[in-house]
Amino acid sequence: MAANTIRLLIAGSQAGGLIGMSGQNIEKLRDSSGASITVLAPNQLPLCASAHESDRVVQVRCLK
C-alpha cells in the first residue's frame, strides 16, 4: 500500500493552535485520521521558508 505525503508551510504564529497544549490537538488529529502528523524541526525547513524564521512545516502522511 502506497503512502501519500503532503507538507504544509504554516506561520509560526499558527503552529501553537495546530499543536495544542501538550500536543493534544495534533494527537486528536492523529487518532481520528490514522495519519502520521509531524511538525518538522526548524532546521528541516525548505528554502522558501527561510525568509520567515518562525514558519513551520507540518508533514501529514496517510497510508490509505
Describe the model.
The chain has 64 residues and is of the alpha+beta class. 28% of the residues lie in helices and 28% in strands. The protein has 2 helices and 3 strands, in the order βααββ. It has helices at 12-19, 24-33, and strands at 4-10, 36-39, 56-62. A 3-stranded antiparallel beta sheet has the order 1-3-2. It is flat and about 35 Å long. The mean pLDDT is 85.
Q: Which structural class should the secondary elements be placed in?
A: alpha+beta
What distance lies between the first and last C-alpha atoms, to the nearest angstrom?
A: 7 Å
Q: Compute the number of strand runs.
A: 3
* Rounded radius of gyration (Å): 12 Å
Taking the sheet with the most strands, its summary is:
3 strands, antiparallel
Q: What is the average per-residue confidence, as pLDDT, rounded to a whole number?
A: 85
What would you call the shape?
flat
The topology string of helices and strands comes to EHHEE
Helix content: 25-40%
Please state roughly what percent of the residues sit in beta strands, choosing from under 5%, 5-15%, 15-25%, 25-35%, 35-45% or over 45%: 25-35%
Number of helices: 2
Strand order of the largest sheet: 1-3-2
Give the low-confidence spans: none
